[in-house]
Amino acid sequence: KMDDDDDIPQLSSHTLAALQEFYLEQQQREGMKTSQGFNQYSIGSIEEDWQLSQFWYSDETALCLAKEAVLAAGKGGRIACISAPSVYQKLKERDNEDFSVCILEYDRRFSVYGEEFIFYDYNHPLDLPENLLPHSFDIVIADPPYLSEECLQKTAETIKYLTKGKILLCTGAVMEEQAAKHLGVKMCKFIPKHSRNLANEFRCYVNYASGLD
What we know:
Organism: Hippolais icterina (icterine warbler)
Shape: globular
Pfam family, one: N6-adenineMlase
Subcellular location: Cytoplasm
CATH topology of the domain at 54-148 and 162-206: Rossmann fold
CATH superfamily of the domain at 54-148 and 162-206: Vaccinia Virus protein VP39
Catalytic activity: L-lysyl-[protein] + 3 S-adenosyl-L-methionine = N(6),N(6),N(6)-trimethyl-L-lysyl-[protein] + 3 S-adenosyl-L-homocysteine + 3 H(+)
Mean pLDDT: 83
Largest sheet: 7 strands, mixed
Main location: cytoplasm
Strand content: 15-25%
Number of helices: 5
Distance between the termini: 67 Å
CATH architecture of the domain at 54-148 and 162-206: 3-Layer(aba) Sandwich
Strand order of the largest sheet: 3-2-1-4-5-7-6
């Protein structure tokens, strides 16, 4: 008789240890949520969903981009985050400062943010609520969900509709030419990092004198 254990794939001890660590972290995180009364704006309150091509920035990157956005928007400025929820969450942590922010996002879990959440599907770039007036944002930060010219081109329509001028685009290094073509943005020296490493080299692009160089 064949040994039943034969067709059970054996995990290496390293993988097992990593898995256990992962589950422990998950449990701790769940525990933290209940104990802290759940800081709704912290990263991790909504987990990234790979199915939706979501990849959160590292904490440092999200913070750096949020600071840049606040500076670029100026006092009382308005900031729009398109498909860049981790920057939005960092901006919400700075809510003692003088600016306002909207998040345009396909993932409806972000509707917990109330009126600041605007459902957004890049396939319909101008299908936006009427109260979102053209050229009403001092800066638009966008991170198109896919590295394709079609996705960039459509997202660019939304960006150009919303911004008074300033654009901060985060996308792959391979998109440099298309980014210049569709949005007139140039690559910065600043290298954005993700909380999980992506296969594609990722960069930031701007069309104004930013603090990211």
